[in-house]
Amino acid sequence: MQPEQQVSEVRLGYLRAYAPQLALSVLDVPPRDEGIAGANTAINDNNTTGAFLNQKFTLDVVEVEPNEDVVPAFNGMVSNGVRSLLVDLSVAQLLSIADLARDRDVLIFNVGATDDILREEECRANVFHTVPTRSMLADGLAQYLIWKQWRRWALIYGSHEPDRLFADALRRAATRFGGEIVAEKEFADTGTARRTDSGVVQIQRQMPVFTQDLPEYDVLLVADESEVFGTYLPFRTWIPRPVAGTAGLTPSAWHPASEQWGGTQIQNRFAKANGRRMLSKDMAAWTAVRIVGEAATRTQSAASDKIAAFIRADDFSIAAFKGQKLTFRKWNWQLRQPIFLGDGRSVVSTSPQEGFLHQVSELDTLGVDQPETKCVIK
Fold first, then answer.
1. Pick among 3.40.50.2300, 1.10.510.10, 3.40.50.720, 3.30.980.10: CATH of 8-132+255-337
2. Cα 325 from Cα 110, distance rounded (Å)
């Protein structure tokens, strides 16, 4: 009788800053398990293969407050054996543990923060990004608008920092691809625009007046990540024009209606396990866990140095139901990926669009390209 082979455990962690979020529509309130559900689905996928290779994958989930010091939580997870850590944190929280993680041979997978600064001025060698940047999302949207010959854009942005950052990404995309922003307006958050304070009749009167003085434009761009006013703009503008950005036609890493490229397979598996459709953060987390799973399986090791070496290899790629194998940009460890463009019901298109060419990868037409990068790997 042969001795039973020892099972190798690959322990992953998921550290998230969580607080219930408001949304202008109750349909847009994020699920309580957003992201975590995607990670757990990938854990199950990894274990399906791992069962044949004597590998077992587990996921430890820890939640903190949005402004809380995450170092104690990080230290606790590392003490429990986590060497691959998914994070859904603010920029400040992520940076507070990035160098600590490097010194303790912990790999970080950013599945939540779209901030370009984490891939540029504050990039790190041990931080991999499976969520796209704001610039990638804006470029994906801009390419489609240019392809449609809708080149004149008006921009309305919110008064919070995330809104301003997405507005900056849209301005950059306009310059990059030949769009013209003919007018801009800020919608200040006075605390009276949310659905709990305003009725439909008031909004129906307010939004046409707010957009009445804009010059002629093809598309109204909206930058309202803070969910203050953007959802109220479609069908309420002074002149009948499409709305795009954080409302209307929205760029995202994934779309719950996607069924192309085997998407039905992952959607059905996810829905069966979680009772809902897959969202962008779920896909970012699923992809991160599958990357670790693929690396651990191919190297037959749970060691973070071997997993990191596998991911950084020239021939690394991961399949993620997006029509092509995805790879990392070696200059800042951002995962190249198509951008989905859709409304609340369907996928309208995916970028990069036809005709936007690149000497290395057409996916590098989305976001900051290598000649533009400010990243100096630390």
1. 3.40.50.2300
2. 19
Prediction pTM value: 0.95
d(CA 92, CA 104): 19
List Cα–Cα distances, 158 to 179, 206, 234, 337, in angstroms: 21, 16, 16, 27
The predicted-structure confidence for 185-206, as pLDDT tens digits, reads as follows 999 998 765 544 456 767 888 9
- Residues with Cβ within 8 Å of 350's Cβ and at least 6 positions away in sequence, in order, are 140, 322, 323, 338, 339, 340, 341
Other beta carbons less than 10 A from residue 179's beta carbon = 23
Measured between alpha carbons, how far is 364 from 140 in angstroms, rounded to an integer?
11
CATH 3.40.50.2300 residue spans of the chain: 8-132+255-337, 135-250
User: What is the C-alpha to C-alpha distance for residues 358 and 71, in angstroms, rounded to an integer?
Assistant: 41
Among 3.40.50.360, 1.25.40.10, 3.40.50.2300, 3.30.70.270, what is the CATH number of 135-250?
A: 3.40.50.2300
